Structure formats: structure tokens, C-alpha cells
TrEMBL record, chain A:
Protein's UniProt name: Aspartyl/glutamyl-tRNA(Asn/Gln) amidotransferase subunit C
Function recorded in the entry: Allows the formation of correctly charged Asn-tRNA(Asn) or Gln-tRNA(Gln) through the transamidation of misacylated Asp-tRNA(Asn) or Glu-tRNA(Gln) in organisms which lack either or both of asparaginyl-tRNA or glutaminyl-tRNA synthetases. The reaction takes place in the presence of glutamine and ATP through an activated phospho-Asp-tRNA(Asn) or phospho-Glu-tRNA(Gln).
Source species of the chain: Mesorhizobium ciceri biovar biserrulae (strain HAMBI 2942 / LMG 23838 / WSM1271)
Enzyme type, top EC level: ligase
Protein family: Belongs to the GatC family.
Automatic annotation (TrEMBL), chain B:
Catalytic residues identified in the record: K79, S187, S211
Stated family: Belongs to the amidase family. GatA subfamily.
Protein name as it appears in the record: Glutamyl-tRNA(Gln) amidotransferase subunit A
Entry's EC annotation: 6.3.5.7
Subunit architecture: Heterotrimer of A, B and C subunits.
Length: 95, 521
């Protein structure tokens, strides 16, 4: 399978990365080189093989359903580019 | 002791606990070495001198009272991927501009609890995506090793006056260093360079497809990627969560064992952290390997591999045989599919992990006409080319209509890769010996690799299988090539059997010796 310019632009938008026409053209070539490389996986017979879900057989650890942390609003917003009274500020999303 | 930076961790530990030297002295020695070398090598992206001096002072107070921990007063470098409270943590990406976390990663917390001193944060490929440390926002790291050539020098006949000497002419050979700058490998290039150039006693690193072992091999240092789940991932910037593991890079096998003992722990904050006590890895060093079964996988003999790598591998086989190991030929038939499967699984996980960099919660924000425009502009400006490439691949293979063909297929192949290893271990193989990399260190801005991303990816051909199967792997220096550059061998072990890796790597180290670059910086 290979991608065309339109697909690259669509994927860039899904990934929320702005691309120029020139970027998209360059990426098309690079992505096709990588997709060409991974193509060889199709020759592997995987009939009856389960997809891997966990590399080490282990049961998901469960914690007690209790509050162990919190009250750190100031820490959480400390690194944000724009905040006001412990809220993250973003461009207006609702008219 | 003239230069304290030359001490290994085990030597420094003995001198610190024996009160022959102080933590302050050794820390100052490293800080001045960094000061002199960093402009040339670019290994550190942030040096935390004040913090290091404070930590060293506290270590000295504990050492005086005889209360020193396992790493008391040992100065370490920390890869920029580890969250360090109040200190530069950017995964060497522009998108995390100015980020100083309000928390400390579990691995670094463990090191500080054992008394280690932080010298600063180490350069790396952006988000650990790269094999040459050239994708860092902070510029490439330079390998302290340079190629050298043997020159035949004709000695002039000279006569000097009274009391002088007379040289009769003739020829001699001399090694002269080439000026070309080489990469230290990646993604933990800063860690490998800092350890190799004596800019820290040891360093933390991480390995998703070979990012500890390949730079260790390129710099003549020892690097171990432990079993998935041995070191907590909590507080480490995530790249591909099912593959990422932290581990140390050190100057010798014993130092790597000492560091891993401190880094590893059982952590309730990481659900994939395994519930098993951490053994005393150092105790495995020096144990004989008589009767141990060493597997040699035929699939690791790849087309176009330099003669020297094959010769190194044969040397490694001979050393282990001489030490009493039984050498057996094995087959890992799905080896060639590990790298293509990796380049689906790792970008898929990365595209999801890196979705969090949106210009809202931390780091860079580029304003836009609405929120989506802000996201897109922020991410376009914040991520470098390689990172964007991988996010794009990941987004594509996870997108509707392609998930089964790519992602599901890759995860099935991954199970087959794991099964290959399980089969040979079940047949009694204790450890597997392979080359660590298909070549020695290459030049900065290598044109072939810049033109074709897949060429760069091939660096990880021998290391990536280990991540796909979640196994432990260690790279240990085994010799120099004809140009005087270090080459490494890799040992792969059973899950959570890091002890056998240290035990066997120590045998290789004993036979091969340790390697130091000639100082030019």
C-alpha cells in the first residue's frame, strides 16, 4: 500500500500537525519508503496467531479504590503556557 | 589520585566509604570536566551545578556518619527523558520548551534515595526517536571516539649538540586521529558520550528499540536494557509504552550492575512494573559460566555485514567456549520481521502518547485563529522532522481501514518473534550471543541515512527483537575495528535473568578488556 498527497494531508490533519504543500510532498515520499519497508510483514503466515496484548504474562495490578493523591491544582497548571486561577486558558471554542 | 573522573563507580564507592575522597571533591572534578568538554561534545543540555554541590554536601555528611547508601556521592548524568523535579525535562524537544516537572521519576528517585548526585540532564534524540542523536532540538552529540589510521613515519636523521641524541632515521608506525566527527549513536547519545568521555561516573538511559545498547556499542561502554517491567516507567516521558525500558550506561560491567540494582524497583505507580524482588546483580559477576548453554542465532548473520563484525562475533564465541560454555547453533526464524513490525508498533504507540503535546498543559504554544489551528501550529513548530514522520506513520496505521492490515498484523508477528525466543530458551539455551550493531559509529550528517530513513532504522536490526519480546539485553565492548573504533557484542537473556547477562558479560569484558577514547577535546 502507498499513500498519495491527499492522504498525507488528511493524516496530518488527524495528527493535528500543520503541513505546507512542500512538507506534504516530502512526507509522501518518506512515508512510502517506510510503508514499502513494512510491506514484507504480509508474507508472514499468522493464521491462528493471537495479536500480542502484553509482553510479559501478568495480571493487571489493582489498587484500592481510595483517594491517595490530589489537591495539587497549582502544580498541575504550573507549566501551562496560559492559565487563570488554576484553569487552563485556550482560544474560545464556543461562540 | 590525580583525576577523580577516571575512577569507576566501584572504585569511587570504596574510596568514598573509606573516606579517602569526598563526594564534594569528585563532584567538583566532574563539573570542571563538563565545563571543559561540553562545548565540544554537547553531551549535556543542562548542567545542575548548584544542585550537584548541595547533594554532594549532603552525601558527605552521611558518609562521615557511616550512613552512606549504595551510590552515596556518586555523580551521575540523567537522560533528558526522565522527569526531574524543578529541572529541565524536555525529551530534547522544542514542544516541551521550558518544562520543569513538579515530580520526580521513580528511577531517579531510587538513585537519589541511594545517595547519588545529579550532574545534569543529558542530550538525546528528540523523544528518543533516532539512532544517531542528530534529531535533538539541542543539536547532535559528538562521539568522543574518532577514526584513526596507522601511518608509517619516516624518522629523519638528526644530530644534536653536546649531550643531545642522535637518531639514525628509519621508520615507525603511529596512529593519527582523523578529524571527522562521528555520532555516538542514539537515542541515548548524550548518556553514552558522557560516560565514555568521563563527564559522569554513570548515566541513566532508555531503550525502546536499541537506544541503550547501540550507543553503548558505538562508544565502548556497557549498556543494559533490562526485562520489560523491571524498571518503573513512571515519570519517564513516554515514547512507545509497550517497548520502553530504562537502564544504565556505565564504564564497565560491574558499574552497570551497581546502577541497575538501584534503578530497578517494584512500583505501584506503574501497573507494568513487575512484582519481583530486585536481586544483587553485582554478586553474579565473577561466577564461572562452565556448562552454560550459549545460543548463536544464524539469522543474525545479515547480508552486507562487515567482515569485522563477523570476526568479533567469532572472537566472542571463542572466549565463552574457553570459559567452559557450550556453544549451540540456534534459529530465530522471525528475526527479519522484527524491524518492520517495530516500525508499525512503535509509531502507533508514539502517535497516541504524543497527542498530549497540544500547547495547553505544558511547553510550547503557537497562537492560531481557533483551537484546532493552535494545536496544528504548535505541533508543527514543536516537533522535529523524525518525530513528525513517526506520528504520521502511527496515525496512518491506526486509522480506519488500515488497523487490521498494519497494526494487528504487526502485533501477531510480534507474538511469533517472542515465541522464537521461548522455543530456544525451553530447549535449554541460557543466553544468546549476537553482535550489538551492524557497523561501528558513522559520521555526523551521513548522506545515505539522511536520504533514506529506513537506512537509519537498520542500525537497530540486532537490538529491536529484544524489545519486541520484552527480554533483557546487554551490550558489552569487545574490541576495536581497523579504524580504531569500538565494537560491541550483545547478550540476550531469559525474562528477568539479568544476572546471567552480567555474569556472561563479565567473562567477555575480562577477555576483551575495557576501552577509552584518546582525548582530543
Amino acid at each position: 500500500m502507498s499513500v498519495d498527497l491527499q492522504t498525507v494531508k488528511r493524516v496530518a490533519h488527524l495528527a493535528r500537525i500543520a503541513v505546507s504543500e512542500e512538507d506534504a510532498e516530502r512526507m509522501t515520499g518518506e512515508l512510502n519508503a517506510i510503508l514499502g519497508f513494512v510491506e514484507q510483514l504480509n508474507e508472514v503466515d499468522v493464521s491462528g496467531i493471537e495479536p500480542m496484548t502484553s509482553v510479559t504474562p501478568m495480571d493487571m495490578k489493582k489498587r484500592q479504590d481510595v483517594v491517595t493523591d490530589g489537591g495539587k491544582a497549582a502544580d498541575i497548571v504550573a507549566n501551562a503556557p496560559a492559565t487563570e486561577e488554576n484553569f487552563f486558558l485556550v482560544p474560545k471554542v464556543v461562540e | 589520585m590525580s583525576d577523580l573522573t577516571q575512577l569507576t563507580i566501584s572504585q569511587a564507592r570504596a574510596k568514598l566509604h573509606g573516606k579517602e575522597i569526598t563526594a564534594t571533591e569528585i563532584t567538583e572534578a566532574y563539573l570542571s570536566a563538563i565545563d571543559r568538554a561540553n562545548p565540544a561534545l554537547n553531551a549535556y543540555v543542562a548542567v545542575t551545578g548548584d544542585k550537584a554541590r548541595d547533594m554532594a554536601k549532603a552525601s558527605d555528611a552521611r558518609l562521615v556518619k557511616g550512613e552512606g547508601g549504595a551510590l552515596e556521592g556518586i555523580p551521575l548524568g540523567i537522560k533528558d527523558l526522565f522527569g526531574t523535579e524543578g529541572v529541565h525535562t524536555q525529551a530534547c524537544s522544542h514542544v516541551l520548551d521550558g518544562f520543569k516537572p513538579r515530580y520526580e521519576s521513580t528511577v531517579t528517585s531510587n538513585l537519589w534515595a541511594d545517595g547519588a548526585v545529579m550532574l545534569g540532564k543529558l542530550n538525546m534524540d528528540e523523544f528518543a526517536m533516532g539512532s544517531s542523536n542528530e534529531t535533538s532540538y539541542y543539536g547532535p552529540v559528538i562521539n568522543p571516539w574518532r577514526r584513526s589510521r596507522l601511518d608509517t613515519v619516516v624518522m629523519p636523521t638528526t644530530h644534536q649538540g653536546d649531550g643531545g641524541f642522535v637518531s639514525a632515521g628509519g621508520t615507525r608506525t603511529a596512529r593519527s586521529l582523523d578529524n571527522a566527527q562521528l555520532v555516538p549513536g542514539g537515542s541515548s547519545g548524550g548518556s553514552a558520550t558522557a560516560v565514555s568521555a568521563f563527564l559522569c561516573a554513570g548515566a541513566t538511559a532508555t531503550d525502546t528499540g536499541g537506544s541503550i545498547r547501540q550507543p553503548a556499542a558505538f562508544t565502548g561502554t556497557v549498556g543494559i536494557k533490562p526485562t520489560y517491567g523491571r524498571c518503573s516507567r513512571w515519570g519517564i516521558v513516554a515514547f512507545a509504552s509497550s517497548l520502553d525500558q530504562a537502564g544504565p550506561i556505565a564504564r564497565d560491567v560491574r558499574d552497570a550492575a551497581i546502577l541497575l540494582k538501584s534503578m530497578a524497583s517494584v512500583d505501584p505507580k506503574d501497573t507494568t512494573s513487575v512484582d519481583m524482588p530486585v536481586p544483587d546483580y553485582e554478586a553474579a559477576i565473577g561466577k564461572p559460566i562452565k556448562g552454560m548453554k550459549v545460543g548463536i542465532p544464524r539469522e543474525y548473520r545479515v547480508e552486507g555485514m562487515p567482515e569485522e563484525i563477523e570476526a568479533l562475533w567469532q572472537k566472542g564465541i571463542a572466549w565463552l567456549k574457553d570459559a567452559g560454555a557450550e556453544i549451540v547453533d540456534i534459529s530465530l526464524p522471525h528475526t527479519k520481521y522484527a524491524l518492520p513490525a517495530y516500525y508499525i508498533v512503535a509509531p502507533a504507540e508514539a502517535s497516541s502518547n504524543l497527542a498530549r503535546y497540544d500547547g495547553v498543559r505544558y511547553g510550547l504554544r503557537v497562537p492560531g485563529k481557533d483551537i484546532v489551528d493552535m494545536y496544528e501550529k504548535t505541533r508543527a513548530a514543536g516537533f522535529g522532522r523524525e518525530v513528525k514522520r513517526r506520528i504520521m506513520i502511527g496515525t496512518y496505521v491506526l486509522s480506519a481501514g488500515y488497523y487490521d492490515a498494519y497494526y494487528l498484523q504487526a502485533q501477531k508477528v510480534r507474538n511469533l518473534i517472542k515465541r522464537d525466543f521461548e522455543t530456544v530458551f525451553a530447549a535449554g539455551v541460557d543466553v544468546i550471543l549476537t553482535p550489538a550493531t551492524p557497523s561501528a559509529a558513522f559520521g555526523i550528517a551521513d548522506e545515505d541515512m539522511a536520504a533514506d530513513p529506513v537506512k537509519m532504522y537498520l542500525n537497530d536490526i540486532f537490538t529491536v527483537t529484544v524489545n519486541m519480546a520484552g527480554l533483557p539485553g546487554i551490550a558489552v565492548p569487545a574490541g576495536l575495528d581497523a579504524k580504531g573504533l569500538p565494537l560491541g557484542l550483545q547478550l540476550i537473556g531469559r525474562p528477568f535473568d539479568e544476572e546471567t547477562l552480567f555474569q556472561t558479560a563479565a567473562i567477555i569484558e575480562q577477555a576483551a578488556g575495557t576501552f577509552q577514547p584518546e582525548k582530543w577535546w
